[in-house]
């Protein structure tokens, strides 16, 4: 890393970039951009789409079948948001009809790996959660 004495003076154009680099993300702050990103990633369809794409590229309808229950509209919106955030890559081949395939970017792959860990944890907890719900419901019924 260059010392401040040897670094070239930032231009006015670089000023915006330097200011951007100094921003601190804080998901607990109401106006922080990270909140919207977190919403895209952790929403029901975002999590499932990213986890599915971790298995490899999918065409839209194949991905829709994989993510059982998602509507065409919701999947399209979800993929668009994840593409905009840089987690999903959309490749459209200029054929008739167009062939569109979705895959994960490097950031998307890293994120999907973390989501897969969460999904595996949740799936492993189903018996314990079911038992806890049964106890809770029984206690509420007695109250």
TrEMBL record:
Sorted alphabetically, which keywords does the UniProt record give? DNA-binding, Transcription, Transcription regulation
InterPro entries under this entry? HTH_HxlR, WH-like_DNA-bd_sf, WH_DNA-bd_sf
Q: Which domain of life is it from?
A: Bacteria
Q: Pfam families in the record, alphabetically?
A: HxlR
SUPFAM superfamilies on file: Winged helix' DNA-binding domain
All copies of the HTH hxlR-type domain together span 32-130
Q: Know the name of this protein? A: Helix-turn-helix transcriptional regulator
